Structure formats: structure tokens, C-alpha cells
């Protein structure tokens, strides 16, 4: 590649909205260009990095036996109604209508579509297991897009979905993907950690996140330097009891509660008087996770310390109110305050409440007289949310340390949540129809670009790991227009490196050395060769690695073997 032909647009200053180093450097080095909040152009230099990241992922997914396909970015709402996610997903899901007034969404992930494909095509145990993946544009209308493409609204994800005849086989594939992910992040040159993660409704150990360790990470990770233990601090949310359990005291009510928005309506559906016995009711919330509505007059529970409930209900992730009442601002006589489990956070809780009541129209999932602590006891797992460095490790083997991480990958055992809702079945060896077990496996392709920079930079710019550098090596000729000897030598080396399969760019812009060096150091090309008349007389050029403090003289004929 010739720099004069390529698209190079470096900036002296980062835009003022760039808060962290990777965002600043990506903007300054001309990797991305903002179009709108959380929506970026991937400029030619940045796209080269993204393609290399994709290729590493693709190679390792293929090696692990997964099969690539591509699913539409625009998807009809019908499938999303089948799983209930069209209504349940909240504002992150971008919905729109076509000219016929039909509802569509832009995919934030693709469980529905892939399950729809598989339920049509794979009907026999002999066709299973299968692991299907795509590398595709996603859209999530993030409340707070930031850090450039690290938390974009439009971004690229590798998402894979596996289908199995049994839970055992799902677990085998989960391990297989765990290993593939470890290989991917190692090849990408990242310092990472796999941590036990929030599984929402799934529970247990069925989910891991892969985090790039960086100060600017949005997640806190508690880990034990002396053992394997590592968990996302948000994990405690997921560790609450996953299923609604009736107890002797809590009466199970077999009703639907469609459309109930007020306590009176809800009570009417439950065939109770609001003032009578209905102090609290447990309904099924998002993902089938129990939701406890603490109703009017239930002041005892209203005053329960937020920190105590935090182990049971997840929204308590807000600034630091002392009681549930502080958190939700309950007025006497109003519906609420409420506790949730699942991924609903305090800032959305009040508006989400109405959705929950509306969504709580399943049979057999309603309790009256439920008592939070008695019927839904403290989680069996350690609540590590308020953990500090030096606290005992939950595995009993020493002390915890805390670091910050950027979530670049996430693997899940979905089990039958989607396959059941969508009737994704197969005929087993015994001739009987069964629901498929499913797993899903995501990697944030474009996020990795930012995460890699967070780990690899200095005051001059980015320092790319070789595997994902936009160019592996730059040739900087001194006096391009002035010296024919330099031009010839530079062109010959360029051709030789290309022939050796090395990704090389030659800077033929005829810029001053200072400008050239500053540009390539900012861009982060890991190897640089300077060719000048003086060195050429001895057949030499100057080589400098991006992390080296000075240049080394190298015979031009040795450069290819030197780089390889
Ligand atoms: P986060 O906790 O950062 O919001 P998530 O848990 O919502 O991420 P997943 O649904 O697990 O994300 O999606 C799989 C992967 O996609 C994530 O591990 C992450 O690397 C990437 N990803 C998710 N949201 C974004 C985003 N807004 N911008 C860029 N990458 C993202
Ligand atoms: Mg998210
Ligand atoms: Mg997450
Ligand atoms: Mg995740």
C-alpha cells in the first residue's frame, strides 16, 4: 500500500467529548469518525483493524467447528413477539415500521431468527449439534453511548448460537467455546480474564464473560490471585433464587393479570380487595424472574435497607439510597415501591413497573401474601457487590483483589428458553419429540478495537499488537522525491515484504521525517524501517519497533526475516 493513495487523516487534538485514551487516539489517528451519538464511520485505517479482529475470530470459530452464516440486520417483529422480547426488551431495542405499517426491529442479537431457521431445517437428532455464527452489525439504543465505539449504538458483534439434543452436549460445546474464546483473545494480544457472569434467569455457572483488564473498564471484577475464582461484581444479582417457589404461607393464585396498571386493577384481577390481604404479590417479571411488588401499606418492607435487598433484587445499583423508599420515591397510596430481580435498573424501574404488571399475565405464577425474606430467602451465594480488596474469597482460598474490566466476550448456556418459546424441536433417537438445548456466544468485535488500545498506548499514540495492526510495518523513505536510490530501495523492499505476506505501507507522501514518524507512531504501526542515502551506501536501513527507544541498523536484505 502507498500512503499517497491510502486515506490518512490524523488530528492534532482529540474532540472534547472523547473522555478516555482509546477514544481520543481512535479519533486522532483517523480510525473512526462520528456521524451521530454512538454511530461511527469506520474509516479505512480503522476498518483494517476491524477486519483483522474479525479474521482471528472467524479462524478460531471455524477451527472450533462453528459454521458461519449471516442473518438480516432488519428483522420482522413477529418472531420477537414469539419470545415476548418485542415488548420486554425496553428502549435498547430499536423498533420501527415499514410502509405497510408492519413492525420491525434492528437486531441487538439474533436468537429469534437463528431459532426460526433451525426449527425449520433441523428436525432429527442426527442433524445435531450445530453451532451457527455470524459477524454482523448490531444496534442497541444505549442510554449512554460513550467511549467511541466501545459503547456504541451501532456496533459489530460476532454472535454464535448452538443447538443440542441434551444439556450434557450443550455443556460440552460451552467448554469448547470457552477454549475458543481463550485462543481468540490470546491471539489478539490482549491481557484478559474469564469471569463468572450474571446469567439473568438462567442461574448457576452457565455464563462467563471475558474481560480485557483496563483501568477505564465499566465493570468491576473480583478475583482471587491465588485461585481460579473470578466474578463480575454484578454477579450477585444473578445469584438470587431463579424460580418462583410457592411456600405454605404464600398462596399461589392461578390468574392472568393482563393490562393491570394500578393496584386496584391488579387486585381485581387477583380477585382480591386491595386493602384486604394484598400486601405484596410476586409476579413473573422479565425472563420469568420473580418480581416482588411491595404494595400499599407494606411499610415494614418499604423500609428494608437497600443493601439487604440488594442481594435479592437487582435494581439496587443506583447511587446509594439507604432504603427502597429512597430509591423509588414511594408515595403512600401509590403502587410501589417495588423490587425486581433481573436486569432492570433503578433509573428504569418506575416506568418499567407498568410493563411488568402488564407482562405478568402467565398462569400459575402469582402469589399473594408473599414475604420477601421468608419466601425468597437470601441468596446462597456470596453477595460480592460491596466487596473490597482484601475481603475473603468466597472459595475460601485467600483474599480477593479487585480490578476493572471491559467486557469483550460473553458466553451463555441459554438452555431451552428460546427453543421452548419458539417450538424448536427435534425427533430423538427414541422417536420422541424434544425441545433443543441452546447456547449463545458473543464477542464485541468493534469494542475490541478500543479495548486493545486501552492496553497498548504511550504518549505518542497507539501500539498495536502485530495480529491486529492496520499495517505491520511502515517504510519511511528519507527524501522520496529527491533520491532515486532511496525510491528504488524503498520500492524493492515494499515488493519484497508484500511477497512475504507482510502487511506493509510505504510512506511516499514526501513529508518531513518528523511528520511521518509522528503520524505512524500515532497510528501505532508496530514496525518501522527508515531508508536514507547514507545507510544505503552500506546496504543498510534503520529499524525501530514501536516500543523500542532507539533504532537499530539492519541490512536491507535481512529485513524480511527480521520482521517475520
Ligand atoms: P454491556 O454489559 O457492556 O452492556 P452486554 O452484556 O449488554 O454488554 P452482550 O449482550 O453480552 O452485551 O453482547 C455480547 C458482546 O457484545 C459484549 O460482551 C460486548 O463485547 C459487545 N457489546 C455489547 N454492547 C455493546 C455496545 N453498545 N457497543 C459495542 N459492543 C457492545
Ligand atoms: Mg448492554
Ligand atoms: Mg454486560
Ligand atoms: Mg454481556
UniProtKB/TrEMBL annotation:
Keywords: Aminoacyl-tRNA synthetase, ATP-binding, Cytoplasm, Ligase, Nucleotide-binding, Protein biosynthesis
Segments forming domain Aminoacyl-transfer RNA synthetases class-II family profile: 38-465
SUPFAM superfamilies: Class II aaRS ABD-related, Class II aaRS and biotin synthetases, YbaK/ProRS associated domain
Catalytic activity as recorded in UniProt: tRNA(Pro) + L-proline + ATP = L-prolyl-tRNA(Pro) + AMP + diphosphate
Subcellular location: Cytoplasm
Database matches in InterPro entries: aa-tRNA-synt_IIb (IPR002314), aa-tRNA-synth_II (IPR006195), aa-tRNA-synth_II/BPL/LPL (IPR045864), Anticodon-bd (IPR004154), Anticodon-bd_dom_sf (IPR036621), Pro-tRNA-ligase_IIa (IPR002316), Pro-tRNA-synth_IIa_bac-type (IPR004500), Pro-tRNA-Synthase_IIa_type1 (IPR023717)
Transmembrane segments annotated in the record for this chain: none
Enzyme Commission designation: 6.1.1.15
GO MF, one annotated term: proline-tRNA ligase activity
Name of the top EC class for this enzyme: ligase
Subunit structure: Homodimer.
Functional summary from the UniProt entry: Catalyzes the attachment of proline to tRNA(Pro) in a two-step reaction: proline is first activated by ATP to form Pro-AMP and then transferred to the acceptor end of tRNA(Pro). As ProRS can inadvertently accommodate and process non-cognate amino acids such as alanine and cysteine, to avoid such errors it has two additional distinct editing activities against alanine. One activity is designated as 'pretransfer' editing and involves the tRNA(Pro)-independent hydrolysis of activated Ala-AMP.
Entry domain remark: Consists of three domains: the N-terminal catalytic domain, the editing domain and the C-terminal anticodon-binding domain.
Family the UniProt entry places it in: Belongs to the class-II aminoacyl-tRNA synthetase family. ProS type 1 subfamily.
NCBIfam families xref list: PRK09194.1, proS_fam_II
Protein name: Proline--tRNA ligase
Native organism: Uliginosibacterium flavum
Amino acid at each position: 500500500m502507498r500512503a499517497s493513495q491510502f486515506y490518512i487523516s490524523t488530528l492534532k487534538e482529540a474532540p472534547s467529548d472523547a473522555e478516555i485514551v482509546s477514544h481520543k487516539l481512535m479519533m486522532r489517528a483517523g480510525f473512526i469518525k462520528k456521524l451521530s451519538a454512538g454511530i461511527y464511520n469506520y474509516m479505512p485505517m480503522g476498518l483494517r483493524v476491524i477486519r483483522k479482529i474479525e479474521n482471528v475470530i472467524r479462524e478460531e470459530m471455524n477451527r472450533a467447528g462453528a459454521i458461519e452464516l449471516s442473518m438480516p440486520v432488519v428483522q420482522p417483529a413477529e418472531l420477537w413477539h414469539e419470545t415476548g422480547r418485542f415488548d420486554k426488551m425496553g428502549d435498547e431495542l430499536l423498533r420501527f415500521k415499514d410502509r405497510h405499517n408492519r413492525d420491525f426491529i434492528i437486531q441487538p442479537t439474533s436468537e429469534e431468527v437463528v431459532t426460526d431457521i433451525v426449527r425449520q431445517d433441523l428436525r432429527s437428532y442426527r442433524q445435531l449439534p450445530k453451532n451457527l455464527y455470524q459477524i454482523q452489525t448490531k444496534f442497541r439504543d444505549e442510554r449512554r453511548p460513550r467511549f467511541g465505539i466501545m459503547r456504541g449504538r451501532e456496533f459489530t458483534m460476532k454472535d454464535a448460537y448452538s443447538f443440542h439434543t441434551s444439556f450434557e452436549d450443550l455443556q460440552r460445546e460451552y467448554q469448547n467455546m470457552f477454549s475458543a474464546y481463550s485462543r481468540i483473545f490470546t491471539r489478539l494480544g490482549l491481557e484478559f480474564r474469564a469471569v463468572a457472569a450474571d446469567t439473568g434467569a438462567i442461574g448457576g455457572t452457565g455464563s462467563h464473560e471475558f474481560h480485557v483488564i483496563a483501568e477505564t473498564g465499566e465493570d468491576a471484577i473480583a478475583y482471587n490471585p491465588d485461585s481460579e475464582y473470578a466474578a463480575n461484581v454484578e454477579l450477585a444479582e444473578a445469584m438470587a433464587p431463579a424460580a418462583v417457589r410457592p411456600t405454605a404461607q404464600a398462596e399461589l393464585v392461578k390468574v392472568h393479570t393482563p393490562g393491570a396498571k394500578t393496584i386496584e386493577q391488579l387486585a381485581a384481577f387477583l380477585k382480591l380487595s386491595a386493602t384486604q390481604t394484598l400486601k405484596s404479590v410476586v409476579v413473573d417479571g422479565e425472563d420469568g424472574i420473580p418480581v416482588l411488588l411491595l404494595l400499599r401499606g407494606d411499610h415494614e418492607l418499604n423500609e428494608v435497607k437497600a443493601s439487604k435487598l440488594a442481594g435479592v433484587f437487582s435494581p439496587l445499583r443506583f447511587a446509594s439510597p439507604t432504603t427502597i423508599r429512597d430509591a423509588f420515591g414511594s408515595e403512600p397510596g401509590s403502587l410501589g415501591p417495588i423490587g425486581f430481580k433481573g436486569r432492570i435498573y433503578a433509573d428504569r424501574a418506575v416506568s418499567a413497573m407498568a410493563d411488568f404488571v402488564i407482562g405478568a399475565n402467565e398462569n400459575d405464577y402469582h402469589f399473594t401474601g408473599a414475604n420477601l425474606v421468608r419466601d425468597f430467602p437470601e441468596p446462597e451465594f456470596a453477595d460480592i457487590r460491596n466487596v473490597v480488596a482484601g475481603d475473603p474469597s468466597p472459595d475460601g482460598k485467600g483474599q480477593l483483589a479487585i480490578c476493572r474490566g471491559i467486557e469483550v466476550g460473553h458466553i451463555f448456556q441459554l438452555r431451552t428458553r428460546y427453543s421452548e418459546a419458539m417450538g424448536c424441536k427435534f425427533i430423538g433417537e427414541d422417536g420422541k419429540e424434544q425441545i433443543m438445548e441452546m447456547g449463545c456466544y458473543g464477542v464485541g468485535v468493534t469494542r475490541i478495537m478500543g479495548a486493545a488500545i486501552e492496553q497498548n498506548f504511550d504518549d505518542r499514540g497507539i501500539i498495536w499488537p502485530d495480529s491486529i495492526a492496520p499495517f505491520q510495518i511502515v517504510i519511511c523513505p528519507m527524501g522520496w522525491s529527491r533520491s532515486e536510490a532511496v525510491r528504488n530501495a524503498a520500492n524493492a523492499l515494499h515488493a519484497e515484504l508484500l511477497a512475504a505476506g507482510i502487511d506493509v505501507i510505504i510512506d511516499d507522501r514526501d513529508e518531513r521525517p518528523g511528520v511521518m514518524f509522528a503520524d505512524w507512531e500515532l497510528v501505532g504501526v508496530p514496525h518501522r524501517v527508515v531508508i536514507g542515502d547514507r545507510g544505503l551506501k552500506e546496504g543498510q536501513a534503520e529499524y525501530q519497533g514501536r516500543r523500542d527507544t532507539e533504532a537499530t541498523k539492519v541490512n536491507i536484505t535481512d529485513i524480511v526475516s527480521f520482521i517475520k
